[in-house]
Task: structure prediction
Amino acid sequence: MSQQQQSVLVACKNVPDAKQLEYEELGLRPADSPPVPALCGIPLKYISLITLAVQNSLLTIIMHYSRVHIPPSQSYSAPTAVLLNELLKGAISLAIAFTRMDRPASYGTDAPQPSLTSGRFWHSSRVLLRSRRLAREVFSPDCWKLSIPAILYVIQNNLQYVAATNLEAATFQVSYQMKILTTAAFSVLLLRKQLSASQWVALFFLAIGVGIVQIQTGTSGTAKAASSLLFQGASMNAVKGFLAVVAACFTSGLAGVYFEMVLKNSQSDLWIRNVQLSAFSLLPALVPIILAQRPDAGFTSSLFRNFGGWAWATVAIQVLGGLVTAMVIKYSDNILKGFATSLSIVISFLASVALFDFCITFTFILGSVIVLIATWLYNQPNRSSAPSRLGYTAVKT
Result:
């Protein structure tokens, strides 16, 4: 545990509910603890993680189908999908941040707060005051720090489309787990995070597992992709897809660690930071669209060219993933996150076999099992450290 994390833990112990949060992280229920948030009797942490696993699998499957099984002449623009993703996430985050703005001081700390459905909440003076506070938060002096991860996330999202176009859905899902390796590496370099021996072993086997999967792709998948030409001569390129995955994992790891650094050194709400991320993402997301603009076509018509149902479905699932991630940060823990990752890999594998005639080989099964075990091992709690709720205290959701 880093010195900064220890100081956060010490500060949390002075808060009345800190111990209850620690018990919740471990899945324990002391007698005086509040009830765990649930929906229809099911704890929200399980609902959020299952939703995240299904969302990850659906995104991989639908993105692959929309890029590979549709003729290139009818293919939509990947940069347009990335731009719409940022616009929608930014708009939703802005709306949520608006409802979470601190109430005016005249209410008092113990006074009842107006609900979203009450007239006081939507009174013109209250709306104006909240809007001003929201503007000050979004355009804070340190908002520029979000420009770096915003650019990296735009690059990562575009690379995901390249990888999904050139790799089978199951292969892409397994290979993309390398982001665990890159995130751990950047955490050690930038955050001075201390990894346990079991985590180093897990990272080693994770790299081996992904390598085995890629060997299988190179020996059987490439030949199959090259022989089964897709519409109008287009085919999948396993090497190009794997390089795109590697680049996406590096940008994802660096962006995630940098974003964590910003959050740990700031008191801003997570939704405010999401708004800032989306705002800074708009310009880099527009660059590839402008560069690909045809002189004889209008900007709007070129932007939404061939943007049909599958394209909108891909964007919608990506936006859903951003919202579910916020729930996972608040209600979940690392062990269950690893379970969600494993579940998404299994779902993608089964869907690839059923929908895309994916060829099952011993090499792929071996590599996938190694990746699953490594993911589980990496997310095991470090018993030598205190059971803190750092993910909750450092990131306010």
Observations:
- The chain has 16 helices and two strands.
- Confidence is low (pLDDT under 50) at residues 1-33, 103-111, 221-233, 384-397.
- The two ends are 23 Å apart (CA to CA).
- Residues 197-227 form the longest helix (31 residues).
